[in-house]
UniProtKB/TrEMBL annotation, chains A, B:
The keyword Hydrolase applies. The lineage of its organism: Bacteria, Pseudomonadati, Bacteroidota, Chitinophagia, Chitinophagales. One of its GO terms (molecular function) is peptidase activity. It comes from the Bacteria. SUPFAM superfamilies: Zn-dependent exopeptidases. This is Dipeptidase. Pfam families: M20_dimer, Peptidase_M20. Residues 193-352 form the Peptidase M20 dimerisation domain. The keyword Isomerase does not apply. Keywords: Hydrolase, Metal-binding, Protease. PANTHER family: BETA-ALA-HIS DIPEPTIDASE (PTHR43270), SUCCINYL-DIAMINOPIMELATE DESUCCINYLASE (PTHR43270:SF12). GO terms for biological process: proteolysis.
Length: 459, 459
């Protein structure tokens, strides 16, 4: 609608400035040294929601980082959309690989460079600005509720508790999230699902102290060597995961479904060039799109042990550690998979060492039916602003809380993300396209318009 | 001799105080941040040698850390002993595992706790005090030369250059080193050899940046996973090292030699209890004494990659690293073994990743013939002060420079160490027994006495 276009045109510079100031707050949820910044960020989000026209805005304390809630109820008879997002960000390290400060946002070319620019400050803030546009132009077509949390990057465990305790307050017809990516602005896509996650940490202990590798080397098991052997054993020669029962509940897609997925535009040469690799890797028998969409994975996210400083130290370490996470697909259950991992790892550990396995967090996979009225509304909205219908794709990432929304609130979730895979999420030099930011703000009101028109889906 | 005993009895407290002040200097050679402390330590050693009666003492600069040289020539016709030691120490980390500051020496029970207390400040300083005793009591039986270096813990590469350039200055009949251990004060032993060392570092690179493990996980090789697979492949099911040609030059000992080795007192239950392990590990077909003495090994000294901080980060790392060292036995050549490792590692690396292999340093193994006159002199000296002849054993550690002494100076080396395997060399809470310190000072003059009496071995 012209009125939306005009309002954004008049205010687009301010919208950007507001986002940049939000990106300057280092709201790293995983690292307790940033706890105060996370709180500051929550207060800032509250202020922005109020300015945009939201009511009953509150910073809700939790056992961890707070949740910001706000709403704009114009007519109880109209459908209600619950907008979810997160204001926390991933740790910024390795710092030395950033071209500019992770929390000193800069505009270079067509992009905003900063930690959280795409994941998820730049994306949830589009919804705050869309709210402003609709309220200021008096065109809000339905009721809106906002729930912006501060623990998405560490598993949303307290959000789960909050949701269970506030079912009435959160009553809605659908959940809308912008925290994923599309193929490109030229080939818009819409996620039909997300992978689940099970994040583990393992500790392998050999001798009770670091030893001289000459005096003891050869006679005592080296926990770093044993850890490598255990990790190596978790993929077979076809890169299948060897944990017994791991694939039991994995849903196999039909030929047609797999064909549809593989019809999405994908340029392998370009993909390899962007990543700087000569060869791709993965589970035998599946395409890259399938490997990152419909197949589960097991990745080492971090490994450490022994002397890692400058020069050399001839030590036989006492301990070695690894952070290992698995991406899950329907119908794997993250708690069950975490158990399978733990039992298997403890079982295969040789008697020379002691192992400790802990679960960090996780979430189950999720699928959005493409025939859902809200999915149609999202498709129409994208068609209205991008000029072509989005390609349905399976997202490889995880938003652990989505499965819980369905379980606890009985709500389906629409994953209308405007980022790109190349945004360096969780990596140095995270970026978000200016065009993506503005296009998102332009598209969101259409979603609400079409969803209101297509009618209330639950009662 | 009584005069030696009396002099030590009168001065033993001062001897200890002097050692403690030397231990307070953090002369860590591997870490450039301690370069100034290493230099300070060299100057201190010079001062102590002069006070003990050495002449022509100088701090000799090198491309790295300096070498302290000094001598006491009483009569060119008498035999000359070249005493070698090192004033540099291993890095102290992990600091949190020390019960007291690594460079704040404390006496607890019968031990001195400090980094370098046994390796090697506490041991080379016994020779400085033995010199003082013999000069002050006018009983020095032969000529002495001292060469105390500052780079033993980082491979002694500059000492090698120094030795080649100063063959005349270093002319002697035998090299004497106290930088190893004995079985116990009740069961004194004398090393008949040392293992060599080849210290490597590997870097495995996957994608050109850290990636989101959900967006890319399953489609791109994870360098941490690949590194684990490569390391795991380097031992077979019998814990034999799989590098082609690695064992080709390994000298097999005769049945008799192996029996002699295994006759040394060894309490496996006690050994396991001390290390806190339920089971020992090692190469099939060899005893623990053989695994640490006459067999080569491959150990991971350090491994790191990805996110190793608090909490979780769902990253697929760009790089993973490991420090890997091999202990070598006669007649393996460390340069040849380093090449074999490099070629093998590069060969087995899959095309999904790029690998970089660098050599830190190394040294070849060494054996002392038990029929050598200086070995007999050392045995007699130990018998004189311990009351029983030492058991000949193969040391598992490495002093890379020893092989070079033989090659460049044509000198055999006597490894008369007074430490214990339980001294936590290279580990937190390194210690050295007070009794070991004093017993060493008491024993050393006898070595010189008997060596002088048994006569000059070369001319």
């Amino acid at each position: 609608m012209q009125v939306w276009k005009d309002y954004q045109a008049k205010n687009k510079d301010r919208f950007l400035e507001e986002l940049l100031s939000l990106l300057r707050i280092p709201s790293v949820s995983a690292d307790s040294r940033f706890a105060a910044d996370v709180k500051t960020c929550a207060e800032e989000v509250k202020k922005r929601l109020e300015e945009a026209g939201a009511e009953n805005v509150e910073v809700c304390p939790t056992a961890g980082h707070p949740i910001v809630y706000g709403e704009k109820i114009i007519n109880p008879a109209l459908p209600t959309v619950l907008v979810y997002g997160h204001y926390d960000v991933q740790p910024a390290d390795p710092l030395e690989l950033w071209d500019s400060g992770p929390f000193e946002p800069v505009i270079k070319g067509d992009n905003i460079y900063a930690r959280g620019s795409a994941d998820d400050k730049g994306q949830f803030y589009m919804h705050v600005k869309a709210l402003e546009i609709m309220t200021k132009t008096d065109t809000l077509p339905c009721n809106l509720k906002f729930m912006i949390e501060g623990e998405e990057e560490v598993g949303s465990s307290n959000l789960g508790i909050f949701v269970k305790a506030n079912k009435e307050k959160l009553k809605a017809d659908v959940v809308l999230i912008s925290d994923t990516s599309m193929i490109s602005l030229q080939d818009p896509s819409l996620d039909t699902g997300l992978r689940g996650l099970s994040y583990m940490e393992v500790e392998v202990t050999g001798p009770n102290r670091d030893l001289h590798s000459g005096v003891y080397g050869g006679a005592v098991a080296n926990p770093a060597t044993i850890l490598c052997q255990l990790i190596a054993s978790m993929h077979d020669e076809n890169n299948h995961i060897t944990i017994p029962g791991f694939y039991d509940k994995v849903q196999d897609l039909s030929k047609e479904e797999r064909k549809a997925l593989n019809d999405a535009p994908f340029d392998e040469a370009e993909y390899k060039k962007d990543l700087g690799v000569d060869e791709l890797w993965g589970e035998k028998g599946y395409s890259t799109i399938e490997r990152t969409g419909i197949r589960p994975t097991l990745e080492v996210n971090g490994i450490w042990g022994g002397y890692t400083g400058e020069g050399s130290k001839t030590v036989l370490p006492s301990k070695a550690f690894a952070k290992i996470s698995m991406r899950l697909v329907p119908n794997q259950d993250w708690i069950e998979i975490s158990e399978l991992f733990k039992n298997h790892f403890e079982k295969i550990a040789p008697k020379y060492v002691k192992v400790k396995v802990t679960t960090h967090h996780g979430g189950s996979p999720y699928v959005t039916p493409t025939d859902h009225v809200a999915f149609k509304a999202a498709s129409e909205a994208i068609k209205a602003t991008f000029g072509k219908s989005p390609i349905p794709v399976r997202g490889g990432g995880s938003i652990p809380i989505v499965a819980l929304f369905e379980k606890e609130l009985g709500l389906k979730t629409i994953l209308m993300g405007f980022g790109l895979d190349s945004d360096n999420l969780h990596s140095p030099n995270e970026k978000y396209g200016l065009a993506n930011f503005y296009k998102g703000i332009e598209t969101i009101p259409y979603f609400h318009k079409y969803f209101a028109e297509l009618g209330r889906t639950s009662a």
